[in-house]
Design goal:
The protein is built from five helices and three strands. Helix 2 (67-96) packs across helix 4 and helix 3 (108-121) runs antiparallel to helix 4 (129-152). A three-stranded antiparallel β-sheet has the order 1-2-3. The termini are far apart. Helix content is 53%, strand content 5%. The protein has a single domain (2-37, 49-155, 162-168), classed as Chorismate mutase (Chorismate Mutase Domain, subunit A, Up-down Bundle). InterPro entries: Chorismate_II_sf, Chorismate_mutase-related, CM_dom_sf, CM_II_prokaryot.
Length: 177
């Protein structure tokens, strides 16, 4: 459920910087829902920029006048995404502490719930559902690898507990004096 809040939080970020997405419907709106429409590949050779701007700022101006400007804006967003992912992974690390076995890391019903929640919430923030699905699958799969590493490398601070953990995974450890 907090993933949906995260997506809504991203919408708040967009609102905070004053971005309003154009909402007039056209055929490309079908690209925001899963499954993607079956459309023949275009053979057009278009003069660029083609189409109309789809991002409008709160002050009435539109983004962007060049590909370089778009890339600059996307670099800023990518830096924000990295920070959000870092915060999420800090929480993943904490979640690991509440898992008794390595097998508890893979919770198929929770995984399905999180991914479906992201897919269902995507249209509300004008995010293509296929992007939400694939990004969340990737985040969860990589988070499970990270969580497994954290679980497997845990060493208790108490030497007696450390010996018990190491004995469980079959490593020989000298007993403390």
């Amino acid at each position: 459920m907090y993933k949906v809040s995260g997506m809504l939080g991203l919408l708040v970020v967009f609102r905070a910087v004053g971005i309003v997405l154009a909402s007039s419907y056209n055929l490309s709106e079908q690209c925001y829902f899963d499954p993607l429409p079956s459309i023949l590949p275009s053979t057009d050779n278009r003069t660029i920029p083609w189409g109309e701007p789809t991002i409008q700022y709160a002050n009435g101006t539109t983004c962007c006048s060049s590909l370089d400007e778009l890339r600059y804006q996307m670099d800023i967003i990518d830096a924000q995404l990295l920070q959000i992912l870092s915060t999420r992974e800090a929480h993943v690390r904490e979640a690991t502490r509440f898992k008794a076995t390595i097998a508890n890391i893979n919770d198929p019903s929770r995984i399905a719930q999180v991914i479906q929640g992201a897919v269902d919430a995507a249209p509300a923030v004008h995010l293509p559902q296929i992007v939400a699905q694939l990004v969340y699958e990737s985040i969860i799969n990589s988070s499970m690898l990270f969580e497994g590493c954290i679980f497997n490398t845990y060493e208790p601070a108490d030497p007696v507990d450390r010996i018990q953990v190491m004995n469980k995974i079959g490593e020989h450890v000298l007993r403390p004096e």
